[in-house]
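User: Run a structure prediction on this.
Assistant: Running it now.
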Amino acid sequence: MIIGKVVGSIVSTRKQENLIGNKFMIVEPVNSGKNQVIAIDNIGAGIGEYVLVAQGSAARIGCGMPDAPIDAAIVGIVDNM
């Protein structure tokens, strides 16, 4: 899991069927030097908020979509660091 800051959103009108109706956010990892990731957001994070991001199979399970092509999911909003 990584901590990141939401820096933007992605709009996609055409996507795989089990992704329809989901919001995608651009997350920049904090203190890791890694590139930005696109994460599915089922919890309602906003731009500027710090979030917890699960990656890989944990992302699919964490957002309740085990059969969807998801590599990263926002699973929490950070209140305090």
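The mean pLDDT is 89.
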